Amino acid sequence: MIRSRGFGTFVFIVAILSAVQNFIVNGIGFLDAYTGSAFGCGHEWFLCNGQVLPSLQALEKSLSMFIEFMHRVGVPILTVLLLVSAVGALLRYRGWREIQLFVGLSIFFVLLEAVLGGLAVVYNEPASVIATHFGVSLLAFACTVLLAIYVRRAERVYGEYLESGVKLPLRDPAPGVSFRWFAWLGVPILYLDMYIGAYISSSGAGDAFRGLPFPAESGIYDFHHALLLDWVHRSFALFLVLWMIALVAWTRRLRGERPDLFRGAVFALVFVVLQACSGVYLIVSHVSVQAFMLHVSIVSGLFVSLLYVAFQSVPPFVPAPSRASVDVGRERTAH
Q1: Rounded CA gap, 245 and 126, in Å?
Q2: Contact call for residues 161 and 249 (beta carbons, < 8 A)
Q3: Beta-bridge partners for 51
């Protein structure tokens, strides 16, 4: 059954559902933070105001309780989907190290996200911890998406493995070291920019600054530390637009050999431009809920796209030899 094509399709579909559910959970979490609903169930975890399942009447009367409870309900659904896809992927594609890597990272970051969320509710954590929670949520989403991508890639070469016992690599030969450094350096820059933006929002200073492209306020301000961070955040945002343009230009020269890198870079450029536009919308709308949700959702696609390009630039892992490939090798040697 594990070797049937239907099982491979099942694993891929569940992996996609895991990524979609992760996006939904993150989206509800972002809405939770924006509306101040994090304590809609009180300072309790796993209970919601002393109950495992609050009554429908209570949920109807309290929007904050409804949002927070929906966020909590989404986490176990995500966990089940992720575990099913992880077990299925390891059973079918365990010889490919990319699958092992992203199964482990997905489970780790999803569990870490849940723990940080529980701690934030129970202990009323400061803005720095809430921003860290946001960053971990994006890492969890990126890893679940990449798991689905590499499950799909593994399925494409699985038929060859069944016929010959040879496990083909899931990625093409790596480009030059300089490109690899350039792609990977963009990841921590983007992550730091996301963290600063989440910190500003969590500190309550998100609607404090005006002016484009930089804040028009003076340094003497109630949120003077956040003003400096907002300058850094916007500077990094403009810098990242230029970075993605350079990434597209570089990968365009490689698209004959590595079209995957070019496609990923184009996605990253589109997302970073949309992210910049949503940032402008966020400012002129005085941080409306629509602008906020758009801004934090687009950055998810940007982070996944850049991380995909960076990981694709790494030299392909050598798949672990299987018993079938060893037997084929022995037969060839014997002949």
Answers
A1: 36
A2: no
A3: 48
Give the chain's count of helices (H) and strands (E): 10, 0
Dump pLDDT digits (tens) for 278-314: 999 988 898 899 999 999 999 999 999 999 999 999 9
SS3 321: coil
Question: How many residues appear in the chain?
Answer: 335
Model pLDDT, residue 219: 52
Say how far apart CA 302 and CA 297 lie, in whole Å: 9
Whole-angstrom distance, CA of residue 98 vs CA of residue 146? 9
Residues 129-150 pLDDT 10s: 888 999 999 999 999 999 999 9
What Å distances lie between residue 65 and 100, 111, 127, 129, CA to CA? Answer: 38, 23, 21, 22
Whose CA is closest to 271, among 23, 149, 148, 263?
263
Please list, in sequence order, all residues whose beta carbon lies within 8 angstroms of the beta carbon of residue 147, skipping any fewer than 6 positions away.
Answer: 15, 18, 19, 85, 86, 89, 99, 102, 103, 106
Q: Estimate to the nearest angstrom the gap between the alpha carbon of 311 and the chain centroid.
A: 14
DSSP output for 159-223: HHHHHHS----SSPPP--HHHHHHHHHHHHHHHHHHHHHHHHHHTT-TTS---SSS--S-S-STT
Burial level of 2, CB count in 10 A (0-12/13-18/19+)?
exposed
Tokens 């484009």 belong to: 212
Of 27, 42, 111, nearest to 76 by C-alpha is 111
